[in-house]
Specification:
about 170 residues; alpha+beta; seven-stranded mixed beta sheet; globular
Length: about 170
């Protein structure tokens, strides 16, 4: 293992820069994560600054992975939910830089996200993905597939893609 994983409770400028690098790399590689290609750096930075503000006010939990080159992966939990869903969080923006893939980092990020959810008293997690490799990871780590919606979003370089929804109940 050449990386470490930790939850951030505050996000500094260097971490924002590293997170922007990961986001840009993933979008360049075709990840359907709400952004189109080309993704301007300033747009990626603005996104992560908004995430940092949410982390600071407790609306999101942010987990990052770092290797010798810097930030190489991340995942978020959207903690702020409607008042009738205080037990639930949405797992969002599970991103692994292409240099760090196929090393077990995705599974480590998932475990850390689930631990953070438990710390925040969340017992139900949901997510969606347009990536078949991610689907295999989620199923291997105990997530339950709910279903597929065709033509849900655009891929970064264009063309519609399907999205698969999952949930995971956490033991308390």
């Amino acid at each position: 293992m050449s990386w470490s994983v930790r939850r951030l409770h505050a996000v500094d400028d260097a971490q924002v820069e590293g997170l922007a690098d990961v986001l840009i790399d993933c979008v360049a590689g075709g990840a359907s994560v709400s952004f189109m290609w080309p993704l301007p750096r300033e747009r990626a930075l603005a996104f992560w600054r908004r995430v940092a503000a949410d982390v600071a006010r407790g609306a999101r939990a942010l987990v990052i992975a770092e290797d010798a080159a810097g930030v190489c992966g991340t995942v978020q939990l959207v903690l702020e939910q409607p008042e009738n869903q205080p037990h639930r969080a949405e797992l969002s923006k599970m991103l692994v830089h292409r240099r760090a893939r196929r090393q077990g980092l995705g599974a480590a990020l998932m475990l850390a996200a689930e631990a953070a959810a438990r710390q925040c008293d969340k017992t139900l997690l949901v997510l969606d993905t347009a990536n078949p490799e991610a689907e295999r990871l989620y199923e291997r780590t105990g997530w339950t597939r709910v279903g597929v919606i065709p033509n849900f979003a655009y891929l970064p370089q264009g063309g519609l893609c399907r999205t698969t929804f999952y949930y995971r109940e956490l033991a308390t």
